[in-house]
Every structure is written in C-alpha cells, then in structure tokens.
Amino acid sequence: MMTVPDLNFGDLFEAVAEQIPDRNAIVHGTTAYSWRELDQRTNRLARALLEAGLTTGSKVAFYLRNTPAYLELFVACAKARLTHANVNYLYVDQELYYVLDNSDAEAVVYDAEFAPQIAALRPRLSKVHVLLEVGDAAKVPQALSFEQACQAGDAAALDIERSGEDLYFMYTGGTTGYPKAVMWEHKHRIAVIGMSSADTAHAHAQQIAATPGPMTMPACPLMHSTGFTTAVATLVAGGCVVLLPSRSFNAQLCLEEIQRLRVQRLAIVGDAFSVPILEFLQQSPDRYDLSSVQLISSAGAMWSAERKQALLKHFKHATLADSLGSSEGSRLGARVTEQGDAVATGSFQRGPGVKLFTEDFREVAPGSNEAGMIATSGSIPLGYYKDAERTAQTFPTIDGVRYSMAGDWCHLRADDTLVLLGRGNNCINSGGEKIYPEEVEEALKQHPDILDAAVIGVPDPRWGQAVAAVVVNRDGRLVEGDALRRHLSTRLARYKHPKHLQQADGAIRHDNGKVNYRAVRAMMGAGDPKG
C-alpha cells in the first residue's frame, strides 16, 4: 500500500474538540452537542466500554437509526480502539443474526425499539457480553443504559496510544445475499476522505480551527457508507452534523431543518431521496428558504439527469456532486454540476489512479468502447473480514499493484469520462441497497405454492431499480399478494420484497439449471441490460 500519515480518527476527534470546544458538533431536533460536550460524553462512553471488558480490536455492532448515539458511539470506539460494525436496522431474524455473529461482535448497541429482536437473539449470541440500549430504560435483561454511560464517570481524555492501523468495518452486500465486512484501516480511510496536508492530528486541528466547519445534513442512513462517510468527514473537518429528528427520511422535515439551521451541505442517495424532496417542492415551491445549501452530494445509486435539473431549479445556490464509489473503494469518479451546466445520468470524470480492466485483467484503453470493471489503487481496504476467497477476487494484484474491484462495469470514453453500465452481473441496486436475486428467489421458493422463481431489477423512477419476480406456481395455483408479503416478512428485509410479480408464461431456466435472465426480462417487459 501507499505511504500515508499514521492518523487515527480518535486522535483527530480529540484534537478538533480541543481547538473548537464551543462550536456545535451534532444537532438533532432540539438536542445539540458542542464539541466539548461530544468530547466529554464520548470519553465517558469509551471508558464504560473498556471497563465492561472490551479490548483493542473488539467489535461493536451499531444497531441504530440516525441519532446522535450513532456518531457518539463511533467517536468513543475510535478513542478506545474498538472496531465499528454497522448493522442494517431493516434486517430481520437470520439476516440480523448473521451480521452479529459474522462480525464476532462482543458488544451490541441498539435503539430501544429493537429490544425485542435483541432479546429473541440473545441466547444465540454467545460472543456478545456487552449490551447497551439507547432509550429511557433498558428492556433487555443485563443491558446497560447508553445515556448513563455517556453521563457518568471520568470525562478526561483517555491515556491511550492509538494507531493508524486500527480498523473499522463497513458491511456491504455479498454475492450470496449475505453482507460482508469491508475492513478499513483508519489512516487509509482518512486519506480517502481528503483531509488537509497535515501529518498529525494536532496540526490538522489547528488548520481547520481558523474557519467554520460545514453544517452538513446526511439525509441518508448512517448505517450505510454514504451517510456514515459524510458524517465522519464533517466531524473531521470540525463541522456540525445535522440529523433529522424522525425514524426515517421525511422530505418536509428535511426542508424545514435546512431552513431552520441554515444547512450548507445535503447528502442523499440518488433518486430515492430526490423524488420525495421534489414531490414536496413541486407542491410548495416557495415555502422554504433553501439559499443556504451550497452542495448536494450523492453516492451509491443512480441519480438521474432529470432529477438533478429539477433540484437545481429549487436549490439555486447549490452545486451537485455525483460520486461513483462503493464501500470497497471511493473516489472512482465524480460529476460536478452547477447552474447552467449540462446534466448527465451515470456519467463521471475518472478519478485519480482509476483504471478499467477486463475479466482477464487486461487494461481497457480510453475510447475503445470496450466494457471493463472499474479498479482503484492506493488507499483501499485490507479486504473482507473472514473471507479470503472473496478478498482475493475483489482486491487482485495486477502487474505488482493491488487494486479494489467491487464489480462496477463501465465504458471509458476518450475524454476520460466513465459511463456506468451496472453493478455486478445481476445485482440489484434499489435506493442504494444491494439486493442479490438468489436470496430473494430462495425466499420466494419457500412458499408452498411457488415451485420456482427468478428475480431481476427493473428501472424505477424513485429507487433507480426495483425488485421484480417471475414465479412458477405449483399446480397453477396463484399466490395472493397479502399472503406472499406475510410469507416474506419473516425472511427478508422489506426493501428486498418484489415490487412487481408475474406468473411465468414459459421456461425460466436454461438446460443447465441456471436462470434464463434474458427470457425473464422479456416476460417482465425489461430489456437486456447488456443490449
């Protein structure tokens, strides 16, 4: 790997708090924490985690919505040299158990609303010996109070020597449908975020103290890379993270908070967030003052030219930044759009050090009109936790250089423009969520009236792609929608449920037993993605 400063998030957060103690660090509705308060609360929380028996490198599962607790917990974990492991709060039963078990989590910090799920899984979580509940009173026996841990004990800085090689995990979708933990070293993730040129945390904090940090709202979930990276980068820059005081995204509340707090930067995930924002603005175009917004950024899903153009009409002082990246590698490409610029969908300027390779690792030349997998080198992850085979596939060494190749296929034009073709061969990207057809197919086939099933992604104006299923019914019996939803509700997170369902009018598999996706797409009226 390339040489980068040996920086650690814990050191950075301490140094920033020392320089700007009275500025706001987090705002969540009527709750606001200054940098001094964030520093003191997270010092206490870090001590509580260590006193509970966690040690350097212990994994901490974050089973939380977008509240200050998520960011406080990450700051505390960085200070205590504990490893963050994100949990998708939409997961149910086996999906949830898989992440908690696969991560080797010794601690689970969860919102009180998820207490029933934790209570049900607790007997199976043999590695977990620390539970922290975020809420008024712990509902799970032996669980500690998150708020009490933040308020009680010594608030002084921890006497810990940290390392740039400390880890955090970012769980992302896997080829089997189960997620995999991407292992990032602090120093390389800090390099990717793009800090100042400082080599030490103290020098960095002195540089950013001279000017106000950004007021940033990650409207997307912190449990995913886009929202999490946006929030962490804002804190590193000495800014303030604004979190919506709602369980999930609410477009009207988002606009109200932008006006109330004079938010400068808004982070979304493509059309999944643009559509509801625009729907509200079209009904009330002059209701809110959005002039404070200087930047709207998106990553992780398709952001259509139509929605970009519409947003620019309402956010008249904003620049749009559309980024191509993944949990396995950032800064693959970007498209910055300002007022008056031509807008584009799925088109990016190639990032530094980014190349395209064929499946046999032959480099694709610009302007060749040949499709290739996008690859980046330099500050990239160590690999996937406990998955050497997949690590070797995704992080190959080519001509002596180690790359990250997460599976995005692109064309590279002569002018260095990347045109995104798709993410993996059959992977569905719905509102930034990776959904693998095989997992949904298996859940469908567990229904007693479904003999076989094939799942594809079809274009969707809001989510980018929607899950569509073609099923072969047993003995011609039709499956009612309500019954199917009940069946799937205990097997799959809701975002994986098919939004379109159709009975097969022909064969859905090849002779070799594999799904005939071309035929399935024809049945659904969807074109060949490679056409």
Helix content: 25-40%
Order of strands across the widest beta sheet? 2-1-11-10-12-13-14-15-16-23-22-18-17
Q: What is the C-alpha radius of gyration, as a whole number of Å?
A: 23 Å
The tally of structural domains comes to 3
CATH architecture of the largest domain: 3-Layer(aba) Sandwich
Low-pLDDT runs:
none
Distance between the termini: 38 Å
Give the overall shape, derived from the CA principal axes: globular
Largest sheet: 13 strands, mixed
The overall pLDDT average reads 91
Number of strands: 28
Strand % is: 25-35%
Number of helices: 16
**Which structural class should the secondary elements be placed in?**
alpha/beta
Oligomer: single chain
CATH topology of the largest domain: Rossmann fold
SSE topology sketch:
Elements lengths: L8 H11 L4 E5 L2 E4 H17 L7 E5 L4 H13 L2 E4 L6 H10 L2 E7 L3 H7 L8 E5 L9 E2 H6 L15 E6 L7 E6 H8 L7 H8 L6 E4 L6 H12 L3 E4 L7 H11 L3 E4 L1 H14 L11 E5 L5 H10 L4 E8 L2 E9 L9 E4 L4 E3 L14 E4 L7 E2 L3 H7 L2 E2 L2 E2 L5 E5 L4 E7 L4 E3 L2 E3 L1 H9 L4 E11 L3 E10 L7 H9 L10 E4 L13 H8 L7
Parallel strand pairs: 1-11, 3-4, 3-5, 5-6, 6-7, 10-11, 10-12, 12-13, 13-14, 27-28
Antiparallel strand pairs: 1-2, 8-9, 9-19, 14-15, 15-16, 16-23, 17-18, 18-22, 20-21, 22-23, 24-25, 26-27
